[in-house]
Amino acid sequence: MREYLIIIVYILCSFTALSCKNNDFGEVKFIDLNTQTVVNVSCEQLKTKYSTKVKKIDSQEAEKLFYLFKKLKRADADWNVNARLFDFIKMDAKKIEFCMGNNVIIIEGKKYFVNDILREYILKITTK
Fold first, then answer.
1. What is the H or E stretch that residue 99 is in?
2. How many whole angstroms separate alpha carbon 108 and alpha carbon 99?
3. CB neighbour class for 116 (10 Å; exposed up to 12, middle 13-18, buried from 19)
4. DSSP code string of 9-65
């Protein structure tokens, strides 16, 4: 009887660990995207000096963001990001870090222009 109890506890712990791991598709930390600031906010400043809200990303949101990221056009390195949100998504066991402003987003260290579709989707998921 004791062996069965140990096996059942092991199975339950394994299942719980796997299901929790599979639910981690990323998160977004953000300030209001419509907030006007006197000076540009860098990604580093947003991460360290601002109080941000946190939104956990589910699998469908991560897939949609990954798809939208692939459709963006590259921006020159001299474009600045007036940061409003940052963090990561996970796709296929890869962690993709990003930092986004209203017009430019940095994805894995490369700058891209934010298009209307991405901007609207970000507004949608951060105002749920």
1. strand 94-101
2. 9
3. exposed
4. HHHHHHHHHHHHHHT--EEEEE--TT---SS---HHHHHHHS--EEEE--HHHHHHH
- Copy the structure tokens of residue 28: 């977004």
Q: pTM (2 decimals)? A: 0.79
CA distance 8 to 103: 52
Tokens of 38: 């006197």
For 33-45, what is each residue's pLDDT tens digit?
777 777 889 999 9
Asked if 47 and 86 count as a contact pair (C-beta separation under 8 A), the reply is yes
Distances (CA, A) of 79 to 47, 82, 102, 118, 128: 19, 10, 12, 18, 30
Tens-digit pLDDT profile for residues 45-75 = 999 999 999 999 999 999 999 999 999 999 9
